[in-house]
Structures are given as structure tokens and as C-alpha cells.
Amino acid sequence: MFSVAGLHYVAGERTSTMSVPSLRNVGLFTVFSVPQMKCSELSAEWIRSSVQNYLENDDVFTTPFLKTVVFHGVDEGSITITPEALDYLAQQGNERRIFITGESLLPGPYVSWGREIRDVWRLVDDSSGTCMLTLKPQQTVGDDPFEIFSSRIPGSQFRGFAIPSRIKTSRVSDSPLSGFRVVIKDNIHLKGIRTSAGNKGFHDTYRERTESAPCVKRLIDHGVVLLGKTKMNSFGNWEEPVESTDYQAPWNPRGDGYQSPGGSSSGSAAAIASYDWLDIAIGTDTWASVTRPSLWCGCFGLRPTQGALSADGIEPFCQLWDTAGVLARDLQKCRDFSSVWLSPGKLRDEAMPFSSIIWPTDYWSIIDSKQITIAKGFVEKIKVSLALECEDLSFKAMWEQLPPSEAVGVSLDDYINEAPNAQCYDAYHNLDEFRAKHHELFGHAPYVSPPNQKMWSFAETMSQEKRDQDFAKIDVYKQWFTQTVWAGTRSNALIVMPLESMSPRYRDEVPSFKRPPQDGIGALTLGPVMDSPVLAVPVAEIPYHSRITDRDEALPFVLAIMGPKGSDLALMDAMLKVLEKSDMPTVVKTGRSMF
Q: Residue 397's domain is classified under what CATH number?
């Protein structure tokens, strides 16, 4: 480890054993690739623009790495540097210039010790405690096992991330995702790394994984840089920070810094809200485990169309609805990432214009009136930007008027409210092997948090027959919704839904609120049931007076916008258009405030 200009660095993997004597022991140096030029000189304009490009596009490179400059691709005798260019380099601290050909070195910053050239990684804190572990950056596209990165900034209480130079990683693959910096949730398997699923007993029971999940392999093939495995609610169940027993919950940077990060993809959301150097965080979603933390941590979040990503290699909660998802600060970047990562065969070939907007009145009945006003203001922006009409609909009333044949004379609440509990059966029995293996290894049952204890106790009493009956009811609801709500002039409608009514939820408070806020198939669960994409969109901030800081702070206010199955990219395109036409940010900031 070493420091340069106040930043911390690690001499990373060995790039090569030095075959160019002139590069031995030069310390810090920077490589510029010289294009085939018609002229025989390097101008001040070319060198200045090259340095500026590095400074603007790479947070690893700093000017001290210009102490030695290596011009790659030309012999010293075949090109000259103009006096103006030499003056500019001297102003940047340059002392030595070397010309090489043949040596395979990517552009960017390096360090040379003895005969070895080593890559340079910047070392930064996981200051919000978002990750279970951090990873050594992979150097090439391939199937090599991942390794844990163990260095940290001296004196820091947090793990360190090793950030590779974007100048180099953007060239690993021809993919537009090459060099994207990504963290992934710790219920997704990585080759060479143990999976915890947020539970210490699970982590200790299973060895390092021999294969990465297919959705991860797809990222690796596109040159994405994976930098850490993020914390999560244990086994994906709804937990608040005070209930995070095995591992401390991540810190949500929004507001006073002591608010719930949501869940279960809490670490992924907190990371994307905390770190400017991070591009994308991967979570998983069964029932709002991407969109809820997007709300609390104030970022964009996409639960994709069911089946658009393979769920193999993800520790299952309920396979019917499990999927990976995307969290991002930048909606355009989220869209670009998703367009490559998601399976095109599961998305619509052509973007159909959305037909209308549905305001589901049943879902909004539990939301604070001031927040409803904010949401309706955003709906007006959607109407104007997309030239759509909005219709208030009560799904309960529609059910009363046009019930399915299986539920004539039965209210929607009576028919469906208990049915979603069927997922508890799957979540519990997916862990049968774990419980048996843990008992075999350690001689006792594994510890699980109080929310999981409660869920397991309930699931133990449920029969397979009851589980199947409840899932059958959900299938009836799904078919009814398609034929009744998403039909006719509403067949391609957007549905604007709340996630939760926002008020302070301090991380030291024992939760007393209802989880989830609505029974049956509510706003958090409609997307999964309908196999549909749901996009979390930050639209405002809710002021509150913090008991932590004793000053006014702001909570994020984020809406869930749902589209029909396969409309993922069209949904993001539509929201980009709405935000841009309304002069609203398509990028949120890190830290206390989104805007």
C-alpha cells in the first residue's frame, strides 16, 4: 500500500515481469497509447487532451503518475515531442519519458518495483458498512475463482474496496458494460467465495462455491468489475436494522444517517446511495426486495420481468418470484446496463406506446395525504410528457363487479388476503437441507433472527395441500387481472403505486408497524404476481426533524411504476422522457440528499 496526493493505493496484481530495462524501478508511471499518426511529433494539444481525458474519466489516475510517461507503440527515434508539449508535461511533474513497442501494456497508471510492473488499485473505505466482503478485481474476462480482498486503509474500522483504473477495465471487453463497477448481493453465488445469505450459520455450513451464478457469468463475460458482496436481510426476510443479529445492518446515508435501509437488498441500495465510484448494485427481489430499499436509500431500482434473468445460483426464497434486479443512481445507466444484461428473448421486440395510467386507489388508501399530493403531481407530469390519460381504479370494486367464476360472491379480501402466505412454505422448505447439514456439522439447529423464527414457525404448520391451494388462488387472480384490469384500452397501461408511507424509521427502533403494509396482493407484490417489471423512481424528498441531529432532514420519496410483462426498456425510456421533460433529475446524488 502507498499514498499519492492524499489518496490510498494498492500495488495490485503483477501485470508482467519487466522485459524493458528502462522501466525498472521507475516507481509511478503512466502509459499512453500513441495512435498511428501521419505526422512525426506529439503536440502539446494531443498530450494535454490525453491527460485531461484520464483525469476526467478515471478516479484512480492522478497527476503524480505522470512522473514517468511511457509512450506505447512508437520507437524513440521515430517521433519527437514538441517543446510546448515538454513544457506542459514538466508543469504536471513529469521527469522522464520512455518509448516502447512490443510490451503488452494497457493505457493507464502503473507502479514499477524491481523487475515487476504492477497494476494500481485505489483503496477506498466501505464507510457505510454495506458489504460482507470485498473482492480482488478480476483482471480478464474468464471463469477464474474470485478472491477476497483483505486490505483496508490504516486506522479504518471498515473494509477496503480495491478500485481498478477505468482506463484499463473499459478495454477488457468490447461490451458497452466493460469496466462497469458493480457489487452483488450475498445470496448470489460467486466461484471461490462462500455465500452467507445474511446468516452466519449458513455461511459456516457451506464451503466456497464452485460455480458463479449464470447472471454473474453474464456480467463477467461483458467485462464488468465485481468489487464486493453486499449485506442483506437474512434469507431475504423483512428485517429492520435492530433485528440484524448475525451481521450489522448497512448504514443508509440518506437524511440523518440513522434511517432504515429497507430490505432485503439493503447493502446494495446503501452502497449505490453512498459511493460515487460505484456504477451499479445488484440485488434480488421476491416481493419488493429491490424496490423497497430503493425507496429508503433514494435511488432507481428495477425489478425486471420475471424470467429475464436466470435465478439459478441465487439462494431461493420462493422460486416462482425470485429474480435479480438493478439499483442505480443514474436512470440512463440503469437502462443501458439492463439492455445488455437482461435476456432479450424475455423482452418485447418493439416498444409499444403505453395506453394509459392506472391510479390504484386501494393501494393509496394507506399513504399520507401530503405524499399522495406529491405522487399525483408526478402523475400529471407523466400525463403531459407521454400524452396519456389517468384512470382511478379500485381493484376491489372491479372484483365485486366482474369476479372470476371461482370466486363469485366472495370479496377480493376474503379470497386472496391469506394466499401470499404460501411463499412461506417454499422459503422454509428451501432450507431443509441447510438445517439438516448444519445439525450434522454442529450438533444443533442454526440460529435465525426473530422474523425468520416467526416465519419458520408458521411455515411448519402449513401443509403442501394448503400451499398449492393458495398458489392456485394467486393464479386465478393473475388471470383475472389480465382479463379485467389490463384489458381493452388499458391493455398496455402504466400502474403508479406507492411503496410505503414515508416517516422516520430509526435503525435503533424495535419495529411496531405492519409488515407488509397491506394484506393480499398489494403495491409491493403486484409486480411479482404479474411477472411484470417495476421501476422505482425518486421524485421528491419528505422533510422531517431528526431526533439524531436535532435539525431538519429529508427522507426519499420514491414511486413504483409498473408496466406489462416485457416492457422493461420501454418503461425506463418512458420515465427518462418524463423526468427530462419535467426538468427533474435523472441522476441522484450520494449522501444525505438525493438532489
A: 3.90.1300.10
**Per-residue pLDDT tens digits for 187-246:** 999 999 999 999 999 999 999 999 999 999 999 999 999 999 999 999 999 999 999 999
Hey, what amino acid is at 79?
A: I
Burial class (CB in 10 A: 0-12, 13-18, 19+), 478: middle
Is residue 24 in some structural domain? Answer: no
Q: Which of 272, 260, 348, 264 is closest to 304 using CA atoms?
A: 348
Strand partners, 42: 81
- Contact between 167 and 213 under an 8 Å Cβ cutoff? The reply is no
How many other C-beta atoms lie within 10 A of the C-beta of residue 56? Answer: 9
* Residue 16 binned pLDDT confidence (cut-offs 50, 70, 90): low
Residue 527 inside a domain? The answer is yes
Are the C-beta atoms of 321 and 299 separated by less than 8 Å?
no
SS3 content of the chain, % helix, strand, coil (to 5): 35, 20, 45
Distance CA 420, CA 425 (A): 10
Confidence label for 17 from pLDDT (cuts 50, 70 and 90): low
d(CA 263, CA 540): 20
Is the residue at 80 inside a domain? Answer: no
Tens digit of each residue's pLDDT (9 = 90 or more) over 481-522: 999 999 999 999 999 999 999 999 999 999 999 999 999 999
Give how many domains the chain has, as a whole number.
Answer: 1
Report which of 535, 538, 532, 534 is spatially closest to residue 579, judged by C-alpha positions: 538
pLDDT at 152 over 80: yes
C-alpha cell read off for 144: 477464474
**Contact by Cβ (8 Å): 536, 558:** yes
Q: Could you read off the pLDDT of 72-96 as tens digits, one per residue?
A: 988 888 889 999 999 999 999 999 9
CA atoms of 416 and 477, how far apart (whole Å)? 8
Domain with 176 in it: 125-147+164-595
Tell me if 182 sits within 8 A of 227, measured CB to CB.
yes
Start-to-end Cα distance in the chain: 35
> Is residue 523 domain-resident?
yes
Query: How many residues make up the chain in this entry?
Result: 595
> Element (H or E) spanning 202, and its range?
helix 200-205
The pairing of beta strand 41-42 with beta strand 131-135 = unpaired
Long-range contacts of 509-514 (CB under 8 A, 24+ apart): 509/240, 509/242, 510/242, 511/240, 511/242, 511/243
Grid look-up 421476491 returns 286
- Strands (E) across 466-545 are located at 494-497, 534-545
CA 449 to chain centroid? 25
CB 315 within 8 A of CB 209: no
Establish how many alpha carbons lie within 13 A of residue 156's alpha carbon, considering only the half-sphere containing its beta carbon. Answer: 17
- How far does Cα 211 stand from its chain's mean position? 21
